[in-house]
Specification:
Elements lengths: L1 E5 L11 H6 L1 H14 L3 H7 L2 H5 L1 H18 L7 E4 L3 H8 L5 H21 L2 E7 L3 H10 L4 E8 L2 E7 H13 L4 E4 L12 H12 L10 E2 L6 E2 L2 H10 L7 H10 L4 E4 L5 H9 L5 E3 L4
Parallel strand pairs: 1-2, 1-9, 2-7, 9-10
Antiparallel strand pairs: 3-5, 3-6, 4-5, 7-8
């Protein structure tokens, strides 16, 4: 059984999608359609912009989504038994699996990005990757820190990302280093994604999701908030709304996909971050990339 997995924010790079645009007519049509829907030429930023331009949440999220979906639609043998996406990548997965149309998916990604960027501007916040500690230790330390800081991304064993206000995250990093973390790395992100500080964005995005038509996907979608296979459109919507303030259970997602019979996983989108995470679960697990540039 073959799984296709889609990366999230942080996988972007300048030049992403250029070869796909130049060599695949269907992909070029999607890129130009996206430029029209968004009201600006996102392809100019993706292909020739600066790192700073591309790092803006309102640009990054549509860019990663666009690259991932265009790449999936260019694959002649795209026949997934299951799909999943890391954070933003969940929307790419839903479009690739037919639960959402491309235009609706892009509009939701754009709305999600703008709502998240607005929430980030309301209060200084950040995220940090904690390496080399058990999840339970990270959770316990975060619970003891004053202020808002929570476990946000359960990426793989020994790698958990925390999220919250800047002082609380910095305090947690110090305490986690004292507790034995190999490294505690502040991430270059716009704010505290997958934390309670995203509540204004969650409420705003909920309105857009509730008025968007979803269909049953062609295969099970393993969603971030539950890490289990979902096919019911209403359940997909509920989980997608909850995702903004809930942690990404990626480790459990990967384990559940393997337990369900997944024998091969293919990363679709920019970068190879998800391959690295899979290898922390099982170094021998067959994992490849369709990360066309």
């Amino acid at each position: 059984m073959k799984a296709y997995v889609f990366p999230g924010q942080g996988s972007q790079f300048v030049g992403m999608g250029k070869d796909l645009y130049d060599t695949t007519s269907n992909a070029k049509e999607l890129f130009e359609n996206a430029n029209e829907i968004l009201g600006f030429r996102i392809t100019d930023i993706m292909f020739e912009g600066t790192d700073d331009d591309l790092k803006q949440t309102k640009v990054t999220q549509p860019a990663v989504f666009l690259h991932s979906v265009a790449l999936a639609k260019s694959l002649s043998d795209f026949e997934p038994s299951m799909v999943a996406g890391h954070s933003l990548g969940e929307l790419s997965a839903l479009v690739a699996a037919g639960a959402l149309g491309f235009e609706d998916g892009l509009k939701l990604v754009s709305a999600r990005a703008q709502a998240m960027q607005k929430a980030c501007e309301a209060e200084p916040s950040t995220m940090a990757a904690i390496l080399g500690l058990e999840d339970t230790v990270v959770e316990q330390v975060c619970g003891e820190v004053e202020g808002t800081v929570v476990a946000a991304n359960y990426n793989c064993p020994g790698q958990l990302v925390i999220s919250g206000s800047v002082p609380a995250v910095e305090d947690a990093c110090n305490k986690l280093t004292e507790a034995g973390a190999i490294r505690a790395i502040l991430l270059p992100v716009g704010g505290a994604f997958h934390s309670p500080l995203m509540e204004p964005a969650r409420a705003e995005l909920a309105k857009a999701i509730e008025t968007t038509h979803f269909e049953a996907p062609i295969c099970p979608v393993y969603q971030n908030v539950c890490a289990t296979a979902v096919t019911d459109p209403n359940e997909i919507k509920t989980n997608l709304i909850a995702q903004l303030t809930a942690p990404v259970k990626w480790t459990q997602t990967m384990l559940n996909m393997i337990e369900a019979g997944c024998s091969e996983a293919i990363e679709v989108g920019p970068g190879r971050a998800l391959q690295g995470m899979f290898k922390k679960i099982d170094r021998k697990f067959p994992m490849s990339s369709a990360s066309g540039s």
